[in-house]
Amino acid sequence: MTKHFKKHKEEARKLITESAHKFGLIYGVNLKRVSIRNQKTRWGSCSKLGNLNFNYKIMFLPKELQDYIIVHEICHLIEFNHSKRFWDEVSRTFPNYRELRKELRKIKTSKL
Prior knowledge:
Layout: H1 3-27, E1 34-37, E2 44-46, E3 52-55, H2 63-75, H3 84-93, H4 97-106
Parallel strand pairs: 1-3
Antiparallel strand pairs: 2-3
Helix pairs in contact: 1-2, 2-3
């Protein structure tokens, strides 16, 4: 566990958990476990069991990108794929999701 991760993990947990619960209510999904990790290449992930995992480095992104990542993973609780139905769910909150995805691709998790 890196010193940077240890220092920021709980702050990231608070920020991410609060947003995840807010968006969970909007989307009508029950959140199970929300984990904060130090992932090398992912901003977030979702398990078939409904557990959400987020990279602690989300906290260093602009708020709109933070929320987009959280909404993206929450939408996987509704559609566990990247089908049109999945993107329709994401677009309820972020009609500009394509631009946000492009912006995120430019930011490498290892560079934060």
